[in-house]
Amino acid sequence: MTRKEKIYNELKRLCSKISLKDFKNEIPGFDATEVGERINIDRSNSSKELNQLVNEKRAIKILGRPVLFFDSYKLEEILGIKLKDDQFHVDSLEDIISINDKNAKEKLPKYNIFNRFIGSGGSLEVAIKQAKAAILYPPRGLHTLLVGPTGVGKTTFAEMMYNYAVETGQIDRNAKLTIFNCSEYAENPQLILSQLFGHVKGAFTGADNEKEGLIERTNGGILLLDEIHRLAPEGQEMLFLLMDKNIYRRLGETETTRHANILLIGATTEDVNSTLLKTFLRRIPMIIRLPSLSERALIERYQLIKQFFKDQSKSIQAPIMVYKDVIKALLLYNCQGNIGQLKGDIQLVCARGFLDYKTYGKRNVEIDTTLLPDYLYNGLLNQEKRNEIIDLLYPENSEYYEFKPKGNEEFNFTDEYDISEGLYKEICSKYYYYSEKGYSHKRINEKINGHIERYVKKLQKKFNVGKEIPENQELFKIVSPRVYNAVETAITVAEGKLKKKFSKKVRVALAMHVSALMERIAENKIIVNSEINKIALNNPNEFNVARIVKNILEDELDISIPKEEIGFIAMLLYAVDEENIRENKKIGVVVLAHGKHTASSIADVVNSLLDTDHCKAIDMPLDERVETILDRTTELVKQVNQGKGVLLLVDMGSLIAFAEIITKKTNINVRSVEMVSTPIAIEVVRKCLLPEASLEQLVKDIQRITPHIGRLVTKNVKMKASISQSRIIITTCITGKGTAIKLAKLLKSSIPILDEYNIILKPMSMNEATIHNLNDIENILVVVGSTNPNLTNIPYIPIDEVIVGDGLRKISLMIQGEEKNKNMYDLNEPNFVVKMLNETLIFLNPIKVYNVVNHSFEIITKSIAITDYRSTKLSFVIHTCSMIERLIINERLTYNNIEDTIRNNPVLYNAIKSSIGEVEQTFNIEIPDTEIGYIIDLFNTQ
């Protein structure tokens, strides 16, 4: 009998003792340890065989802590159902029965509402017991405080408490759950008291009528006071009478008392002892702390991720296919915003996938790693819980998970992270509403513009617009960069035509609007209403410009936009906060260049193309004194300064000092950049016109611009260098030409000026890259590779500098004779290495192989000292990953005198040997000593 059959027979024996009544208190099942121990098989082998039985559909796997297994045939017998193909890996027993026979639902004992909460048997077990006690405590429950950081689900937990109270009969089914956010009225204590308690006529200025409060409306139910720490002390004190004796008074009442039987639940992110009155806290005996996401078990996070994808599939009514690496990233990334952020990130990624689904007519919404923002993608590089992840995802044979719209009904979280269905729907619905009310065209226009403005503010808050984040990073989670770039082009033209500037929030709104429109076009669900254009004609200037915007968007996005859309676009252009625009200040820009007309010519072109006069210039004839130029520049800086500082674009390094001198003389923040060309000036002025631009960020952006930006800005202009003598860039690899060739391809694709400057790329092995083998050494420009061949007077750039540093820019400057030998490394981009491997490797998964090889390197560093950690690490990773591919296809390198190398490097050899076990096991290869010899050479030559 095989080991697998022994395992299955033991599982069958254990499950044979289970009956329907055993389902009442917990989900039955047996973990791998228990099954294995009974027949003397260790846990790892037991787990492996049980997972194989699940794949064969002879057992089901119930995820949790611990993971449980159950005989599938026995489960079908107990419940009287036939298991579906997708029901052999489940989060709970309810997942199995929810879409099967109704008889099974009737047979299964009912669980209380809290059992549907992910983590009910784990991290939330204590909190749920407290909540049940608070609801059931006689005669009417205990007032409760829910404490925990933002995003842990306090509002959802309060809803569960309400549902449990209804389920157990503690409150009537018609009783209300009222949610009130104290922060919304925190600046007006009188108003917050009026909202809660109501008021009598004349209670305060403006109280012309009596008004009932939330307490009166919630009588018999539960009142949730969210952000209760924002409730003023007088508000807390007014609740004393209600909490003690179930009576209260409206604001302004002195003699009359009213009766209300209410259970209070407060929610806060703050320390209750420092934010609430001691006398108030004494009246709230139950304080429940909800854990952060980082405190919860990884299996719970896994279940939450799957639940949220299920919710999104139902929401968009389309199947969602999520690749396994995406699940891994979501499990491992630093999710500081807890469950709220996790759900929000999943919604935003799904929205990007949904856009592709609609745009390209895909069968499924596909979510792969290309849709992940950098902070989420970096989760794949987190090694902390790697083994736990492998254990968790091991049974999933497929490369992706599939979530379908139909299926079991899961509890949906209530929070503020849901994505709006789009500005298009908002405008349409409001238009129809006000039309039916009989409003005039002018009045409808005013109303809709008001809704647009409020909606835009909501978008601004949602996408963190205005905060110092990488430009458009948040927006690109949901709006395609292609759409946003088209909108940017259209808005720039609109600004010129209307002679006013539109803020970032208007760009966001129009981009969202266009994205929603493209979805409707794909579904052939265009809403046509000529009345919209008639309304928009109340603003003729915006209407005429909207026609132009429509044409630009059609050309840029290759779509046909209905003419009725002109009205919507016109209203968007009109709905601009004019007060903010008037107050908008810009960074001043001054171009300083030697020559009689150089600077003014650049400024004229920039101003003409961008339809502005923002770019100023000072021409510097060679015979004019520097002191005179400084005085002229100082006066011009004073004129153009609007309070956000001034940027000087200068053509010679000696003029850099102008910025510091002028700052001291005028107290104006002046910065300078030693970089002048028409394309750069266009980019600078364009950024300065954006309302969110800051001088410091602008300087950083310009310093990062590559020398060939002109080719990016003016795509159709091609410069050809008239250089007859070719120059050479050598790429090297310690083991041969394999990696050297791939590195050459990377340089070819990354530096577009190679052909223009007649540069030849020569991949070479280390043995070839020697003085003796190079006849044309005088034409060699630079050597790039994993190891320095030490060619006399030839500069060397290590491969790590190309991948995560400033190597590409340095090579470009060398080609043009402008190398400043600057060192501007950015060491915080580990995903660059993965991207490089993606280009280098032929068939291996770059993320998988990187994780394993990186771990191997860390083991080595514990045994030996490494001087240049970064350079050595990157060389090791790239070399070893390429070696693994060679060994998989049985391509091995020879190494002369390997015995001598091992004998001369015993410590390094043993360190490498002990580190490669995981590599060999993961990829089912054997790494011979001849390959280890090259790794030894790699460490010795760094």
Automatic annotation (TrEMBL):
An annotated Gene Ontology molecular function: ATP binding
GO CC terms: membrane
Protein name per its UniProtKB record: Sigma 54-interacting transcriptional regulator
CDD domains: AAA
Domain PRD: 478-583, 844-942
One GO BP annotation of this record: phosphoenolpyruvate-dependent sugar phosphotransferase system
Every Sigma-54 factor interaction domain range: 117-351
A Pfam family reported for this protein in Swiss-Prot or TrEMBL: PRD
SMART domains: AAA
Limits of the PTS EIIA type-4 domain: 586-717
Keywords: ATP-binding, Nucleotide-binding, Transferase
Keyword Ribonucleoprotein in record: no
Organism: Irregularibacter muris
Keyword match Nucleotide-binding: yes
